[in-house]
Specification:
Layout (H helix, E strand, L loop, with lengths): L19 H6 L3 E6 L4 E4 L1 H7 L11 H4 L8 H8 L3 E9 L6 E13 L2 E14 L35 H14 L5 E4 L6 H10 L8 E5 L5 H9 L15 H4 L4 E5 L6 H13 L1 E3 L6 E3 L3 E6 L14 H7 L2 E4 L10 H16 L5 E2 L1 H9 L5 H15 L5 E2 L30 H15 L13 H19 L4 H8 L3 H11 L9
Length: about 500
């Protein structure tokens, strides 16, 4: 490995020094691999941390020893991009172990005469034992902004899920990454559209080059053209020569979020740019050739006709050569346990906690909820619950944020906004409870005087059912829970939310 002359003495013969011996004794874990990712050196500290004999590791692929896909291995990524990866947190599974390990890694490429011959990895590790939530440990990789020096934080290893709907999307995305074709991503808020866009970029040949993201809806219409295409000196009063995002993303990927919010006049210019792969700065007559990939996204239901003032059809066809739909969380509820485990472990690291899982009642509540905010909502709900948990290791219903929704879901196929977990403003909740008081007084068929939407009516009806069942059970929680087909803890939670006290029915 070449070392700059300013960092070594020319009077010392380094070629005769055995540097592997001190590395073998070093109190930091050290792994060296060849260019193919096979482990050729495994020091004592690393062996002790992994609880593996060197004979089981030497000449084994690093991906097999740590149960990693090729795109998840920091060692292979380091050699692929020919750059060091410094202080990156990561999760992995050690061969033959059921425990999840978390480490901070620094990986450096090894060179001989300028050619990559392998990599050296330094690691410090600690274990996080799995309890409470069954199933395989998710392969989790901590965010590390700028770790690839291309403005990205995510790879495919950060996209957690095992449901058929989710895996189908990921499989198509991986296939698309190897091509030059434009990609359009459709998904509701919170499903992870930009995460998927970054993963595609980092799995593609363009990964050494920039990933530039822009939310078209966040830029004033008057500035969108100059933001995308740049400006020539003197284009308008005080204008300076400035690169636009097309030039900044040269060689890499330009991600256009909410592309359907772009003015129609600018869409026409964008279409011409993509057809010719040439552009002009605002106020310039000079054409510039560009080399980049476009990934775009929008939130509208792609099965519905495009509004006339939304996205031009010809631009839509140009951008959607590869079309990916990220399924909402309500149709991939089989991933809830995996995602819950992922966020708990990540928050344990960032918050300094030791939460092991969630109670069965919390998981039941999660499964019955429609998640209009999708994965992002789940992430925030769990973070809030963990902060409220104190020193407890299992999250309970009482730990959930007070603004978290309640009620019974209308099912996995319902649309966002139609779920029954309503966030009540204080004024609406007061009116709701006033109506409940009238129900308790025996006026079962009373109607609210003002108009009320379907969601509130359904919540009111649920409160009526709960009231009647707990009344018939004479305040017996176990009997009422059996009749309703839910757990006692979940029933307690619902009764508390609706202000129903079982004691008043006991005789």
């Amino acid at each position: 490995m070449t070392v700059q002359s300013s960092h070594r003495s020319p009077d010392f013969d380094f070629s005769s020094v055995d540097l592997l011996d001190p590395l073998l004794q070093l109190d930091t874990g050290v792994i060296i691999t060849d260019r193919y990712g096979r482990i050729v050196f495994y020091n004592k500290t690393q062996s002790r941390m992994d609880q593996l004999e060197p004979s089981r590791v030497i000449n084994s692929p690093v991906t097999e020893v740590y149960a990693l896909a090729e795109d998840q291995s920091l060692v292979l990524r380091c050699m692929r991009i020919s750059q060091p990866i410094i202080h990156q947190k990561s999760y992995f599974n050690i061969r033959g172990s059921k425990q999840l390990s978390q480490g901070v890694f620094s990986v450096y490429p090894l060179r001989r005469e300028g050619e990559i011959t392998g990599a050296i990895c330094f690691t410090h590790s600690e274990s996080l034992f799995q309890k409470s939530i069954p199933g395989p440990v998710p392969e989790i990789h901590e965010k590390n902004p700028g770790c690839l020096a291309n403005n990205t934080q995510f790879t495919f290893s950060d996209l957690i899920g095992a449901s058929p709907e989710f895996l189908s999307c990921i499989t198509r995305a991986r296939s698309a990454a190897a091509t030059k074709s434009p990609v359009m991503i459709c998904g509701e808020t919170g499903t992870g559209k930009e995460m998927l866009a970054q993963a595609i970029h980092n799995y593609s040949p363009r990964r050494p080059y920039p990933f530039i993201a822009v939310n078209c809806a966040a830029i004033p219409e008057t500035l969108q053209e100059s933001t995308l295409f740049g400006t020539a000196r003197g284009a308008f009063t005080g204008a300076m020569a400035k690169k636009g995002l097309f030039e900044e993303a040269e060689g890499g990927t330009l991600y256009l979020d909410e592309v359907d919010s772009m003015p129609l006049s600018l869409q026409a210019k964008l279409l011409r740019t993509l057809q010719d792969m040439k552009m002009r700065r605002v106020g310039s007559n000079r054409e510039l050739s560009i080399n980049l990939r476009i990934i775009s996204s929008f939130k509208k239901d792609y099965l519905q006709p495009l509004p006339k003032d939304s996205l031009r059809k010809d631009l839509y066809y140009r951008l959607s050569v590869v079309f990916l739909e990220i399924p909402p969380l309500r149709v991939r509820k089989s991933d809830l346990a995996l995602l819950t485990k992922y966020f708990i472990h990540r928050n344990n690291i960032s918050l300094g906690l030791q939460v092991e899982g969630v109670s069965s009642s919390v998981m039941e509540l999660f499964i019955n909820y429609n998640w209009p905010g999708n994965v992002r909502e789940l992430e925030h709900v769990l973070e809030g619950a963990m902060i409220a948990s104190g020193n407890e290791t299992i999250l309970q219903l009482d730990h959930l944020p007070t603004n978290f929704a309640f009620g019974r879901s209308s099912g996995a196929g319902s649309q966002p906004g139609n779920d029954l977990y309503t966030f009540f403003p204080i004024s609406d909740q007061d009116k709701f409870l006033q109506g409940l008081d009238r129900i308790k007084s025996g006026q079962d068929n009373v109607q609210f005087e003002e108009k009320i939407n379907l969601t509130k009516v359904q919540n009111r009806r649920e409160a009526e059912v709960l009231y009647q069942v707990i009344k018939a059970a004479q305040g017996n929680i176990s009997q009422a829970a059996r009749q309703l087909g839910i757990s006692r803890q979940l029933l307690h939670y619902k009764l508390k939310k609706f202000g129903i006290t079982p004691k008043e029915f006991k005789k």
